Amino acid sequence: MRNLIILIFVVYLGLLLSCKPDHATKNTEAGFIADLMEQMTVEEKIGQLVQYSSKEALTGPEVSNKAVSIVNEVKQGKVGSFINVDGAQKTYDLQKIAVDSSRLGIPLIFGYDVLHGYKTIMPVALASASSWNEKLIKEGAKVTARETASSGLHWTFAPMLDVSRDARWGRIVESCGEDPYLTSVIAKATVEGLQGTTLSDTFSVAACAKHFAGYAFAESGIDYNTTEITEQTLRDVVLPPFKACVDAGVATFMSAFNDIGGIPCSKNKELLTGVLRDEWGFDGFVVSDWNSIGELIKHGIVSNRKEATIAALEAGVDMDMEGRCYKKHLKDLIAEGIISEEALNTSVERILKIKYRLGLFEDPYRYSSIQREKNEIYKDENLEVSEQMARESIVLLKNDESILPLKAEDKKIAVIGPLANDKDVPLGSWRARAEYNSAVSLWEGLQNRIGDTKKLQFAKGCSLVDEVVNYQSILNIEEEDRSGFAEAVRIAKKADVVILAIGEHCYQTGEARSQTDITLKGLQIELFEEIYKVNKNIVVVLMNGRPLDITAINDKAKAIVETWFLGSRSGYAIADVLTGAYNPSGRLPISFPRHVGQQPLYYAKKNTGRPEKLGSKSIYQANYKDNESSPLYPFGYGLSYSKFSYSDITANKESFSKGESIQLSIKVTNDGKYDGKETVQLYIYDPVASVARPVKELKKFKQVHLRAGESKNVEFLITEDELGFWHKHGGIYAEEGEFEIMIGANSQDLVSDTIRYNN
Ligand code: BGC
To answer: In terms of Cα–Cα distance, which of 251, 243, 480, 229 is closest to 356?
Structure first.
């Protein structure tokens, strides 16, 4: 009898072990994961930490050219995630192998760089940041999440939150500009839009806060370069947007390529564990940037890939993106007792947790429905959100003699320029699965909106780059063909207004696209001059991914409209602004320089002991001697067809104490003839503090719609949060004393008042 019981037990145990676990049966996240992990071998656990890229779409340098059978690796449970594999069918097929043919059937997580739209392309981040409209940005992120999630993808490597202050750095286009507060507001909105209220919603995707941290501080604006960031700057400027993401519940983080103080981010335990987990309580997982673990060797911080593996895992990098370090070395390191299985378990658990929250154990194919993919992608309503974002992202920089909006008297309009009828450049870089040439060009937009096409004439004038649209060929621009000038001049001569679309090719910005020269390149200035000789009514429409030095045309152009790269519906949005159907409301999220020599340029600078004194003859001032030190157009700047005026600030009290607040109010009036939207910005200055503070820091903003002639009181509540900054001992708090409060239309045009804070 005893033998029979033992036999039954052994058979039962055998059956239990031979069956795949029923992943859906454990009803608590922790219980489910613990149960699953108990059944995993060390190799299977390591597999969860490995992310492969599809060879068809490498988004970084190839790490290994060794032929690997992906299918076999998946079957053996040696891969936990893929990047650059998308589409309902492809992800379904690969998922099926993972689920049906691997021992434990653990689903894969598919990630992709969906930065500003999957197929419906939204404005690039620098553009949408110009809208200062977090609600709309969240809407855009929701649409992006719907399309992404309908293409078999669970995870996007967005938002990119590197506070960026150097226009030479090509990735500035992916950023929200120079300000930590504005970037933090957008960070929250984007994470909320992408992830929805719960990750288990099949229309949401996991977000990834990148690049943690300081990547945009690359010295000299050279991508991947080393950084010199003080702890104060790191805490006050670089980290806040990332903290905002954690507070918004972001699922994942990406460790950056750069080093901080000589410690590359993928080895930076202080950052990845100390700040991110211990201080902020982040409970998702960290993925490396593309082979950033392997690149620890080149940084000169470890001597081989095995040491790189130890360094990265110990620092807190859970998943190795395409680096093949964890895959190759973790098993030996565990066998040798150098890395504990417990440390491995911690990372595995974090990854499984996100897979669980995405609902992948319940239904691994829930994102891979071909029917849903057909229904959801590139829908009209998605395009409408993109168009609305595009309109609000446009910044009117100049409008002499109110040349804009276009008038009924403008009987002949010449539309000229290398970008005037370009259907691809407005899609920007990191454009996921956008169809080539799928944007509405400015020329198409104007024809559509103006209707009376006899008014309009087009000439390209010159090309921006070689006609061959090749990502690599964009690097060198040696356009010398002036044969289109004559036609451009001919139509300009007869026109009442010339709309001249110039700027940059979208692949002049983006990853690895640093530049020493940020002027308008090629023949563009020459073309402008030729047109100017015959027609002074030039409206420049800029398309670009970084603040450019536009001084060559700034004085002569009557109007300048900054449109960045606006995405799928670019041309309609620009036409709406040019015709006045939409009153421009965008504000610069970044300072526009007078010269590349000013970089890095940002408004929130410190006073120094010898601050610049405008009008003073003394040479002993912090300024340039061959140019003005101020920006050409400051942070927060943007015109409207209306004019807004500000009253003095009123406060409900003069001082307040910890735990209390103070209410500030300002009357804003629309003195113009058009209804419009104003972005009221509030800055603070702590003039006497234990650490020298920036002369202005944006702390709040509000958008108000005002009809022509209308006034509204705009109110701001100030608490300690707005006045505080980071202290080495004691964290973020405000110091007692007086604070200058400045409110106005941009970082230069401000009215100010003083309040007191008692600690
Ligand atoms: C970039 C990341 C991107 C990754 C995957 C890297 O080169 O720095 O932003 O997410 O590639 O494509």
So the answer is: 251
